[in-house]
Amino acid sequence: MQMQDQKVRPRIIVLVPVRNEAWILKTFLECASLWADHIIVADQSSTDGSTEIAAAFPKVTVIENPLPHYSEVERQQLLICADCD
Description:
The protein is an alpha/beta fold. It has one domain (10-84). 39% of the residues lie in helices and 20% in strands. It has a 3-stranded parallel sheet, with helices on both faces.
């Protein structure tokens, strides 16, 4: 088979904003890890161990969302820019 005949599968990157999501985060990351190539978790000052749970998964990169307030636009921008690195 020639190189041009091979199809290249696009990478699947999951972008996840979290704040105190420990109650569901482990299950979510276990499931997403089955099909995602990489997962970026933006933690917004969780106090329930969410950061530690996320960091335990090899496909996960944890970034900090330092915003003291909720802003959907800013948190999505943070996640998208993290993927650009």
